[in-house]
Amino acid sequence: MEATVTVQQIHKSYGQTVAVQGVSFDVHPGEIFGMVGPNGAGKTTTIECVEGLRRPDSGHIRVLGMDPWRERRSLMARVGIQLQESGLPPRLRVGEAMDLFASFYPRTVPWKPLLEQFGLAEKRRTSFADLSGGQKQRLFIALALLNDPQVVFLDELTTGLDPQARRAMWDLVRDIARRGKTVFLTTHFMEEAERLCDRVAIMDHGRIIALDAPEALIRGMGLGKRVVFTMPNGQLAQAESLLRAFPEVEGVETAGERLIVFGRGTHFASVVVRALEQADLPFQDLRTEQPSLEDVFLTLTGRQMRE
Amino acid sequence: MRSLWKLTFTQAKLYLREPMAAFFTIIYAPMMLVLFGMIYGNDPSPLFGGLGPMDVSVPAYTALIIVTVGLISVPIATSSARESGTLRRYRATPLSPLTYLSAETFVYFAMTLLGVMLLVVVGKLAFDVRFEGNLISVLGGFSLGALSFFALGFFIAGIAPTARVAQTVGMVAAFPMMFLSGAAIPLETLPASVRDFARYIPLTHVVTLLRGVWFGDPWRQHLTEASVLAGMLLVCSMLGARTFRWE
Ligand SMILES: Nc1ncnc2c1ncn2[C@@H]1O[C@H](COP(=O)(O)OP(=O)(O)O)[C@@H](O)[C@H]1O
Ligand SMILES: [Mg+2]
Fold first, then answer.
1. Pairwise CA distance, residues A160 & A137, whole Å
2. Among the listed residues A78, A121, A75, the one whose alpha carbon sits nearest the alpha carbon of residue A98
3. pTM, whole model, 2 decimals?
4. Which of A24, A50, A297, B123 has its CA 20 to 30 A from that of B13?
5. In terms of DSSP bridges, do strands A199-204 and A32-36 run parallel, antiparallel, or are they unpaired?
6. Distance A188 CA to ligand 1 centre (A)
7. Residue B79, pLDDT above cutoff 90
8. What are residue A53's phi and psi, to 5 degrees?
9. Banded pLDDT at B134 (limits 50, 70, 90)
């Protein structure tokens, strides 16, 4: 199957700042492809080069068989774009914005159902300036879907949203993908990439440092699991030495009344629980933690991802 | 075509929702006319070659509306649309820059014309002002003056890094012009030194041309004004289109 987006060896600098250095990847038809990395990693530069809004210094890009920089206007008719930074006239109303943008495209879907789907039907007569952050974001996504695009680009679509709105946004994105559209998104939230994307490119300092399905990335790192619980101070030392004896356990750390047990294997968690119960050690608030993309980033870069 | 019409219509609505812009384009000049008319009346005066002060004020205030829209509204609106990210968003659609600039120009033209029409109606009703020109000729002079100043406004927006700078540059250019060109105050009442200097102010040519065609002068009497403005239109349109930036 031919790739929807092909990027080969693109480079882009702004004066002395090297933003993107030799990035290559493909986006396949129908997938949700994510680019994740800390602020300044070069995600926006990359996605905007792919959209034809910025011109890479060198390298080769194809989107739906077109050169995005040279055939920008024909490409714009077939893709939908939500920009990390953009706006609308403060006094423009939601319905007017939909109507106006619909006139820019040769072919569009009816916009009233779109507003309804994005929970903006009652806001039709509300000015852009009076919308909340989440409503603005939803309006921008609705605008990006007006022309029934084959590919949808979403740059940091949940920045500034509260956790609940963020989850609602994820559902909307899954919905877009279910309707057969290809989604290319960027985010600096590891959890978002992990939950939402079929494949993820981890970006750091202008380079892709890993690219695969989130589960494959996590598995590939050979990262262990964690069991965390609390216990009265007097018994911590006993629990620690007890647990260290098991082959499944790779390490134990204490932090106040909390014990963190590192290990691996399918039975790791039950081994820990059974050992504690048999020794009659009273544990509380026990939970197991699976490794996440966050841990993958930490392992690859030695740095914590920060929001 | 559909996008041109829709964008024009939408921008016109937005223009009228901006109280300051709507006031200075549409209300301000008729208001000044009424105010000064109450003070000076409109009796024929030898100073104005037998015309009354309000007779000559109508074409002069037309130039005033033109410079207000061209050098204040155009730079502020264009650079604010850029600063707010609206133009960035437009660029991510198939909308062409030519369509955008045409729609904007139509809106400014229509709004200026609306202001002038109200000015004429108020002048006619309140002071029975005279009009002795040919409508086509007056529209031609009006269009030439308006478009050349809009083009200058787009150029200012193009070179100004921010909306604030665009606003400042526009105002610094507009205010002295208003008072030294005969647009706000008749040149006949100003000292001779100012009148000599006024020849070098582009707006003076708009005032002179409009007043001429308003009272029936043939165009051949105003070739200087017409060529200065045509030259300005040509150069500023080129510069305006060249410096136009989406972000
Ligand atoms: N228009 C620009 N002019 C100058 N520097 C820029 C510009 N856009 C991005 N940069 C710089 O390029 C680097 C990558 O930025 P960006 O692509 O926005 O990363 P991300 O989207 O991952 O946060 C950063 O160091 C940023 O400061
Ligand atoms: Mg970014």
1. 9
2. A121
3. 0.90
4. B123
5. parallel
6. 14
7. yes
8. -90, -20
9. very high
Closest CA to B146 of B179, B91, B106, B189: B106
**3 state SS of A238:** helix
Give the mean pLDDT of chain A.
93
Tell me which residue of B10, B70, B22, B30 sits closest to B232, measured CA to CA. B70
Range of the domain at B113: 2-243
The DSSP line for A102-122 is HHTSSS---HHHHHHHTT-GG
Helices (H), A160-224: 163-178, 190-196, 214-220
For the record, the structure tokens of A64 come out as 């739906």
Sheet containing strand A182-187, strands side by side: A79-82, A151-155, A182-187, A32-36, A199-204, A207-212
What DSSP string runs through A178-192? HTT-EEEEEES-HHH
A263 three-class SS: strand
**B208-229 pLDDT per residue, tens:** 999 999 999 999 999 999 999 9
Distances (CA, A) of B194 to A13, B46, B238: 53, 20, 31
What is residue A36's three-state secondary structure? strand
State the Cα–Cα distance between residues B139 and B134, nearest whole angstrom.
9
Residues A280 and A182: beta-carbon distance below 8 Å: no
Give the number of the atom of ligand 1 that is nearest the alpha carbon of residue A54: 1
User: How far is residue B219's CA from residue B212's CA, in Å, rounded to a whole number?
Assistant: 8
For residue B3, which residues of chain A lie inside 8 Å, CB to CB?
103-104
User: Closest to B3 (Cβ–Cβ): which among A53, A86, A104?
Assistant: A104
Length of chain B: 247
Rg (CA), chain A: 24
CA torsion sign, B54 to B60 to B64 to B66?
Answer: positive
Q: Percent of chain A, pLDDT > 70?
A: 99
Whole-number pLDDT of residue A266? 82
- Measured between alpha carbons, how far is A98 from A112 in angstroms, rounded to an integer? 9
Query: Between vectors from CA A162 to CA A159 and to CA A166, what angle results, nearest 5°?
Result: 65
Is the pLDDT score of A304 beyond 80?
A: no
Using an 8 Å Cβ cutoff, are B104 and A115 in contact? no
Tell me how far the alpha carbon of residue A148 is from its chain's centroid: 23
Q: Is the pLDDT of residue A307 over 80?
A: no
Distance (angstroms) between ligand 1 centre and the Cα of A45 equals: 6
Four-residue CA torsion sign, A197, A199, A205, A206: negative
Token pair recorded at residue A54 = 């910025």
The count of domains in chain B is: 1
Q: Is A21 helix (H, G, I), strand (E, B) or coil?
A: strand
Do B84 and A89 lie within an 8 Å CB cutoff? Answer: yes
- Identify the three-state secondary structure at position A56: coil
- Facing residue for A89 by CB, picked from B14, B91, B92: B14
A113-157 tens-digit pLDDT: 999 999 999 999 999 999 999 999 999 999 999 999 999 999 999
